[in-house]
Amino acid sequence: MIAAENVVERGRHTGDFADTITLDEGQRHRRRMAMVSDGGIAFLLNLPEARLLREGDGILLDDGRVIEVKAKPEALYEVRGRDAVHLLNLAWHLGNRHLAAAIEETRILIRQDRVIREMVEGLGGTVKEVEAAFDPAGGAYASAHVHEGEAGHHPHGHGAHSHDH
After folding, report:
1. Is residue 142 a contact partner of residue 131, using CB atoms and an 8 Å limit?
2. C-alpha distance across the termini of the chain, in Å
3. Does the domain made of 73-140 have the CATH classification 3.30.70.790?
């Protein structure tokens, strides 16, 4: 089987891509897994450590071909504030709960969660259900990516900061 042990970060591949692979955010956080590109190229992803493959990254196959990573649209919440300062305040509250978030100039994209929606709306933010590619910010602890269902697990101690849970 063809192996892939390296990733070319987005914007660094200068040639043509051999194919694409379209994955949601959860499927893009990988270390080792058999995969099949959108056009049918089967390969074994075998990275030295788990990482989040980003939209536009290239998976370098051992035969020299490069597969472009595409982010599959997912059901998300689009969070907006009244103004930039209010949006920053909402971002702080989301970050305080260790939520994966894609932060843009005028909105924040997060996974759908009824409790979080109620919190954001209670803080005066607007929440809209959208289908979009989810490419969350890496953050200070990006190498210890927390997956859905691991609530309460943190890759760091709590001595340096305090927050609500």
Report:
1. no
2. 45
3. yes
CA-derived radius of gyration, the chain: 18
Rounded distance between C-alpha atoms, residue 155 and residue 59, angstroms: 27
Q: What is the mean pLDDT of residues 91-114?
A: 95
Domain boundaries for CATH 3.30.70.790 within the chain: 73-140
Please check whether the domain covering 2-71 is classified as CATH 2.60.260.20. Answer: yes
For 26, residues 6+ apart whose C-beta sits below 8 A from its C-beta are: 147, 148
**136 vs 114: which has the higher pLDDT:** 114
Question: Alpha-carbon distance 107 to 102, whole Å?
Answer: 8
